[in-house]
Write a structure and sequence with these properties.
The protein is an alpha+beta fold. The chain folds into 2 domains: about 130 residues, 2-Layer Sandwich (60s Ribosomal Protein L30, Chain: A), CATH 3.30.1330.10; about 160 residues, PurM-like C-terminal domain (Phosphoribosyl-aminoimidazole Synthetase, Chain A, domain 2, Alpha-Beta Complex). It is built from 10 helices and 12 strands. The strands form 3 sheets. It has a 6-stranded mixed beta sheet with strand order 8-10-7-11-9-12, with helices on both faces. The protein has a 4-stranded mixed beta sheet with strand order 3-6-4-5. Helix 3 links the parallel strand 4 and strand 5. The radius of gyration is 20 Å and the shape is globular. The model has no long low-confidence stretch (mean pLDDT about 90).
Length: about 325
């Protein structure tokens, strides 16, 4: 199979969207922005051997390739609309491509995202998605808007993907049933798009958790010139992880605070919004947990339920660290 056969057979699918003037098939796509809306553009690259194992199932890989980008839109409260996919593949295997593209377009359809372009080349495994979304003008959630006395919230459960990776790397051992739950979260993160949209009138600042909670909340603190205090014992995770007798507390806390690959949301909001945030969580079927608060002292302070200070050796993932 040749490159353009791959594009025509697998990527060129009819999509009904009056804002798409021209999609796949030309030198560039053309979209027409809506009046009264701001566009959001983000891109994420997944590299074989760094972000995924070479033997990953194509459907799982396709889900994650798009999901991590949808998560960026969720963090800003944006509605994802269009995506461009660039790939480097060592070969064009038709069975593999069918499974990959079917899963990719299935997730795109769930979120009404249209694939409008990209690029293909022969090479080692690389997947790069550029995603475009929109919010009503000047209403986006940003990192630089956290305010002193804000609550700090997180969605979902943290630490599962990091736990699964450590099992793969023989740094930890988990019962099969627990590992499978963690592995599912690593391979199939659920983008919190609906929650992000509900948070537009409620939250001040938000960020998706990709490199570890401590590091990613740090981006909010730096951008907003504030600090935070977090009770690490309130951070939600899979209950079965806490119940493992062979698991050290230090390792569990590392997964929760610095493991990364969670693709959940961390966000801040005024205490007056607590009831509305819980209602938004119920409406979107998304668990949320309040874990701390924002203050003016520009430092991140971590403590346990008893008030003991927690020191981290590593804040989160760093490609060049």
């Amino acid at each position: 199979m040749k490159e353009f056969d791959f594009i025509r057979q697998y990527l060129l699918r009819q999509q009904q969207d009056e804002q798409i003037i021209l999609g796949i098939g030309d030198d560039a796509a053309i979209i027409r922005p809506r009046k009264g809306y701001d566009l959001h553009l983000s891109t994420d690259m997944l590299v074989g051997g760094t972000h995924f194992f070479p033997d990953v199932a194509p459907a799982d890989l396709a889900h994650k390739v798009l999901a991590v980008n949808l998560s960026d839109m969720a963090a800003m409260g944006a509605t994802p609309r269009w995506a461009l996919l660039s790939v480097a593949l060592p070969e064009l295997n038709q069975d593999w491509l069918t499974a990959f593209c079917d899963a990719l377009f299935a997730l795109a359809a769930r979120f009404n995202v249209a694939l409008i372009g990209g690029d293909t080349t022969k090479g080692n495994w690389v997947f790069n998605v550029t995603i475009i979304g929109e919010t009503p003008s000047q209403q986006a959630l940003r990192r630089d808007a956290a305010q002193p006395d804000d609550d700090i919230w997180v969605s979902g459960q943290l630490g599962l993907a990091a736990a699964a990776l450590d099992v793969h790397w023989h740094k930890a051992t988990l019962p099969t049933s627990v590992f499978m739950q963690c592995e599912h979260q690593r391979l199939r993160p659920e983008p919190r798009v609906a929650l992000g949209q509900q948070l537009l009138p409620l939250a001040h600042a938000a960020q998706d958790i990709s490199d570890g909670l401590a590091q990613d909340i740090g981006h909010i603190l730096t951008a907003s010139n504030v600090g935070a205090t977090i009770n690490v014992d309130l951070i939600p995770t899979l209950p079965a992880l806490k119940q493992q007798p062979a698991l050290s507390l230090a390792q569990l806390r590392h997964w929760l605070l610095a493991g990364g690959d969670d693709y959940e949301l961390v966000f801040t909001a005024a205490p007056a919004q607590r009831e509305a945030i819980m209602a938004a969580a119920t409406e979107t079927n998304t668990p949320v947990t309040r874990i701390g608060f924002i203050h003016q002292d520009p430092h991140l302070k971590l403590h346990d339920q008893a008030g003991n200070i927690i020191q981290l050796q590593q804040q989160g993932f760093d490609h060049f660290g």
